[in-house]
Design a protein that fits this description.
The protein is α/β, with parallel strands linked by helices. The chain has a single domain, classed as Rossmann fold, CATH 3.40.50. Helices cover 33% and strands 22% of the residues. It contains ten helices and eleven strands. The longest helix is centred in the C-terminal third of the chain and has 14 residues. The N and C termini lie far apart (43 Å).
Length: 269
Amino acid sequence: MTDESQPASQRIGVPQGAEADKAALRGLPSLVWRFGQERRLRLIAAYAHLENARILVDGCGIGTYVAQLRAFSPSVYGLDIDAERVEMGARRLPGLLQVADAERLPFADDTFDVILSHEVIEHVPDDRAAAVEMARVLRPGGRIVLFCPNRWYPFETHGFYWRGRYHFGNIPLINYLPRRWRDRLAPHVRTYTSGDLRRLFAGLPLRVVYHTQIMAGYDNIVARHPRLGKLLRTTTYAAEHTPLRVLGLSHFLVLEKRLTTEDRKSSVP
């Protein structure tokens, strides 16, 4: 699992050796907080009630979003399958992070007001089981906020395999190949069309509040070539309001758990 919000070329460092294998399977956690992450945090806050909410970051990496969300609520918790990353994050967030599996969340039904799944579900072995578990532990009226890779983004940001060897980086056009060919080159990570994502949550007690695609943060480009980076932000963020958003880096999906009949009756004065 990962806390990433940027393409590979816009995150810090290039993994080597065993860390490269881990990056292939689980992605890279965000190690610094920059414009791209801040922009996503504003989106989260716009579509989920965070003030004093009970919040779960499902796939927290080293806890970057856990730390930032604590500005809204003291009841923010994170979990990740990677014990090493959880241990690293727990040094600054003691008692808030734990090692756990997204397909078997260690929480009772109807526990959380908000669940953030940030560039994680594409790495989970059974993404449907992870979706079912998020719905289970979400309280009626609560919201899931999910970011995940968009199939129609022109680059595969998680690298690829060629002749058994993993190659890290942003690789153009792999995701435009037929699925069976694409999955042979990138078997370690999924990417989703809008239809794929809707089907993933089909049949669960959830309704779609909002669904779109968003562009990258371009933080490294801005740092190295400020004018070019700012131009990219201006033009591509404007494109988010046009059909060209289909080329965005990530899906941004907000789901709300439906109230049961009992919930509705108890809310009547």
